[in-house]
């Protein structure tokens, strides 16, 4: 099991995370990359890098043969799968071992058992691990499922046996809705996981999602490293994670820890794993699933234990025993993590793509940013939209929360729409501040999320920075020896127009220079005096009406500006009314909201459609998005075909509206 070269079969922030530990351990590292990732940070970070295929994941990061060939060509003796992609694929684990390589993870048997919800639940019941009452049998006929549902009672959950992440999952409160829920869950499960097998479970209402980090070696040692609370979720996808759980007691931790280590022993586990539980208000907990890999949220455990879990994974894969016993595990302070995604919360979290104009992570006491992006990199539609994780640690939960809020503001990420502002809002919600969030928190707190609007101070700062940039450019092209006369005018200075557009809105502004770095910016019914004190990209320090303000900023490739303040970011451009003439309008034109693959076109020219009807399905960043009719009418033209890769803004079809 000895090895000195590791191939990381992944990309993005987790690839960078593993590569850094490998380097710290003195090991040689190999990255793999698709055509879309040729210039990605994880490629530059490794000692060697091997191309494994085109941009699509199926032809690259999910291509077992290409990854094994890359290991052979690079001389790698071990493969770390990270998370996602092939990390929980039992066939991949077997193929790695069959190729004479070390798989840094559990053996294929454990992956296989825990990867099937039905098989995992049967194994946990046999091991005495508390489980939600339900049905996980092999008889998948409709009559059996309907009868078992009556036995379990409502509300209940219908779940895909082979998957996770909310796909193939339905909450059913009314027995009359069960047949349709079974059909839809089966269809989703088959499409997502290649299996339509289902399980049924009694729904635990408003629980906490609490998981236990376990570790096991090849010498029979199994311990846990405490818990993480992952209750803040959207559509069963984790958004905020923390350690320890705000309501945890030492007695409950010991009981959940015993159940988690019993679960690991039941499948002869080895390496890092996570046993997930639902915790109800009474303190009862139930097995949910086991993730047979490193978790996205593992940094919060690392920050409260002071341990490097990737280093432990590598050491265990090399045959070493665990370095600590259970009574030596020490939990210190509190850590909270948020996942920074390229997505638009105001548009139902639609994944976003584009070029990163500026990325500069926060630093400071108790702050950690795990990222796999860099300034100038293009966010691709081919992969998961998570860009980075921002983590804060402190002696108390409140200090960790405040540090995390500051870190979100100080992490400058501009050029692509992100959920940073939404994350900051979550951290400020009274229920989260009080540590009371359950899995129902987001659904109960947020109905619709409005597009953030800049206030007048943001507009004034953007105008001042744009004008200052233009002044600096003019000065650089002039013959003036210095800027001492910059802003001087014998008539006191006449106001100049500086109309700005932000999205679909236009602000009519005027500006008057006041000295070398001062501007009086006026709007329709307001004015602000802006003094630019310091410009050190990607941040600027300004004084607005006598109050200090620090913002992140980046100039775009035209003459616009990205501005970030308190985790919210905006894009401002000089308003050009004549440019709008080239834009296509009319509700009958339907264009792609993001780059993606056309999964299906469900209509043809001449078809009659109603507002809200599904017209086509696009796939981007591992998610499918339904394009719906904006109006009633008939299909006039269709411009794309199934299987076609299209760019954002590509016209998909047009509808001839019904005359009222």
TrEMBL record:
<feature type="domain" description="Lipoyl-binding">
    <location>
        <begin position="581"/>
        <end position="656"/>
    </location>
</feature>
<dbReference type="InterPro" id="IPR011054">
    <property type="entry name" value="Rudment_hybrid_motif"/>
</dbReference>
<dbReference type="InterPro" id="IPR005481">
    <property type="entry name" value="BC-like_N"/>
</dbReference>
<keyword id="KW-0092">Biotin</keyword>
<dbReference type="InterPro" id="IPR005482">
    <property type="entry name" value="Biotin_COase_C"/>
</dbReference>
<dbReference type="Pfam" id="PF02786">
    <property type="entry name" value="CPSase_L_D2"/>
</dbReference>
<dbReference type="InterPro" id="IPR011761">
    <property type="entry name" value="ATP-grasp"/>
</dbReference>
<dbReference type="GO" id="GO:0005524">
    <property type="term" value="F:ATP binding"/>
</dbReference>
<feature type="domain" description="ATP-grasp">
    <location>
        <begin position="121"/>
        <end position="318"/>
    </location>
</feature>
<dbReference type="GO" id="GO:0046872">
    <property type="term" value="F:metal ion binding"/>
</dbReference>
<keyword id="KW-0436">Ligase</keyword>
<dbReference type="Pfam" id="PF02785">
    <property type="entry name" value="Biotin_carb_C"/>
</dbReference>
<dbReference type="GO" id="GO:0016874">
    <property type="term" value="F:ligase activity"/>
</dbReference>
<dbReference type="InterPro" id="IPR001882">
    <property type="entry name" value="Biotin_BS"/>
</dbReference>
<dbReference type="Pfam" id="PF00364">
    <property type="entry name" value="Biotin_lipoyl"/>
</dbReference>
<dbReference type="Pfam" id="PF00289">
    <property type="entry name" value="Biotin_carb_N"/>
</dbReference>
<feature type="domain" description="Biotin carboxylation">
    <location>
        <begin position="2"/>
        <end position="447"/>
    </location>
</feature>
<dbReference type="InterPro" id="IPR011764">
    <property type="entry name" value="Biotin_carboxylation_dom"/>
</dbReference>
<dbReference type="InterPro" id="IPR000089">
    <property type="entry name" value="Biotin_lipoyl"/>
</dbReference>
<dbReference type="InterPro" id="IPR016185">
    <property type="entry name" value="PreATP-grasp_dom_sf"/>
</dbReference>
<dbReference type="InterPro" id="IPR011053">
    <property type="entry name" value="Single_hybrid_motif"/>
</dbReference>
<protein>
    <submittedName>
        <fullName>Geranyl-CoA carboxylase alpha subunit</fullName>
    </submittedName>
</protein>
<keyword id="KW-0067">ATP-binding</keyword>
<keyword id="KW-0809">Transit peptide</keyword>
<dbReference type="InterPro" id="IPR005479">
    <property type="entry name" value="CPAse_ATP-bd"/>
</dbReference>
<keyword id="KW-0547">Nucleotide-binding</keyword>
<dbReference type="InterPro" id="IPR050856">
    <property type="entry name" value="Biotin_carboxylase_complex"/>
</dbReference>
